[in-house]
Design goal:
Blueprint lengths: L1 H9 L7 E2 L11 E4 L13 E4 L4 H24 L9 H10 L7 H11 L9 H10 L2 H7 L1
Parallel strand pairs: 1-3
Antiparallel strand pairs: 2-3
Helix pairs in contact: 2-5
Length: about 140
């Protein structure tokens, strides 16, 4: 269940989307509603509303901070290129097909990678991935406060 929620969060539209957050206790299955096909540019992201269940707060309660970080590291290893030790365009494209997300367009994958790529190398290292996961978890940010 963790990996499916991790992927659904990771493929959610980045930066300033209009989140319709439902607390886990009353949430339904993750869904994505768009007003038009997936955006090709970051500017078009504001036209998207995302509704998903954020599992990170319940994972934090269940596993603690150290356990949550271990699970994030497991998620990173699931998506990374084994040779480079990074989540690359190629590894994310290949692993998304294995995880049932075969309809992702190349532009969407590039957009996901660029959202978390802090050093500009076009790939995500483990620290960038974990930072991105925390940034994309509105429930975990509320939990921290």
């Amino acid at each position: 269940m963790f990996f499916s929620s991790l992927i659904s969060i990771f493929v959610s539209p980045p930066r300033n989307p209009l989140y319709k957050f439902t607390p886990p206790s009353t949430a339904t299955l993750p869904t994505q509603t768009t007003t038009k096909p997936y955006p090709a540019t970051m500017e078009e992201v504001v036209d998207i509303v995302v509704d998903f269940e954020d599992y990170f707060p319940s994972m934090m309660e269940r596993y603690g901070a150290e356990g949550l970080m271990m699970e994030l590291c497991n998620g990173f290893r699931l998506l990374m290129d084994g040779e480079r030790g990074l989540i690359t365009f190629e590894s994310l494209k290949m692993k998304s097909v294995v995880l049932g997300l075969s309809d992702l367009k190349d532009e969407e994958i590039v957009c996901m990678l660029s959202e978390g790529d802090l050093d500009g190398d076009g790939a995500l290292n483990q620290a960038e991935f974990c930072i991105l996961m925390f940034r994309l978890s509105p429930g975990l940010l509320m939990y921290a406060q």
